[in-house]
Specification:
With 460 residues, the protein is mainly α. The protein is built from 20 helices and two strands. Helix 2 runs parallel beside helix 5, helix 11 packs across helix 12 and helix 14 runs antiparallel to helix 17. Its main location: membrane.
Amino acid sequence: MASESAPEWLNKGDNSWQLAAATLVGLQSVPGLVILYGSIVKKKWAVNSAFMALYAFAVTFVCWSLWAFRMSFGDRLLPFLGRPDLAALDQRFLLAQGFAGLYPSATLVYFQFVFAAITLILIAGALLGRMNFKAWMLFVPLWLTFSYTVGAFSVWSPNGFLFKAGVMDFAGGYVIHLSSGVAGLTAAYWVGPRMAKDRERFPPNNILLTLTGAGLLWMGWTGFNGGAPYAANIDASMAILNTHLCTATSLLVWLCLDMFVFGKPSVIGAVQGMITGLVCITPAAGLVQGWAAIIMGVLSGSTPWFTMMVLHKRIRFLKRVDDTLAVFHTHAVAGSLGGILTGIFAEPRLNRLFFGDDPKYVGLAYALKMGRAAAGFRQIGMQLAGIVFIISVNVTVTTLVCLLVRLAVPLRLSDDELQIGDDAIHGEDAYAVWGDGETYERSIHGVQNFALPTTLAEAA
């Protein structure tokens, strides 16, 4: 007999997995990307970079609960946007069954929040080392409200026009990665570049911590893609296996390309290859077979590598825009690639597991084999249409948000603040470890070469 705390529609196993998956995704951001951002930049930017991620996580949760969740998954206001309301704070709404899955809406609010949060944090990766923190404080809620909600509702909501049209985005290749890559590049254009010497040389302050953050990102992707079916089912298992298979392949391909072209196995390069593999498989994770995941890994380890290492240096616009962590290549290029490959390799049975018995969902490779070429080419067309829509929305809205924020505060830090970094912006240093709160520069070990004591009396 069902109790009040466990109604008949509740599946405890699915609910447990969904909460765990959401927490894994949350750990990708806090502490995953907080650690990665804080360690992959110059020492003087460690605090600022990490704090941009932490702030975005916190403010996104408040805005998500107040209005953005319902704009993304609520009642239809426009074909591409839901109606904002405070239902996500209403106990009756939160305890009732959600729009998907056999668990309450409260679980869905939490699960979808961590995806929204990581999208904003990924955008930050393009802006590290020069964006005014006050401008970032305004940018996050505005972009979440007017850009993220549009993509999420259009592609993921059962009421969204791209969802109804048949665009396949299993776990966020479009909604999260293409969006963050395009928005990051656009915002980087409006914010402006880092100091010239920072663009020329921007070494990580701690590569081991960079690997720690990257490891949390990789393992957290188990929840990212494994939670997309909204159930602890066989499709979740397939999605998780494909995720790690594609990622490992992509990392190895990027590593081999670095060694062949540059002669050395780059740790940062391997991390980039890992990220592009994770991104590329995301729109396809539970829709393709293992052999297709490997092919996607080969392409995700080579195509973004080529756009980053070769094309970027030849295209004037890309050279001019300072995308600090190459978010455009690792997320926009890899996300678009994954979306197109999903349209080619999506397998009919797996499509049915995820989308139900709807014949319009079919990969081109299988459609040709089944004598349904028109359906396969239609699917490719829908995947391309989704890319065009997401790019258009993010270029437009990100530009408007940056121009609006610029009316209130400067987007870029002053030259003096850029020269000093964390201490000027936050009054804090990442590595104040020498003596009684002294930083490296102000210690006997620093560049100012303070005189060493010559006698025990002087030392005392």
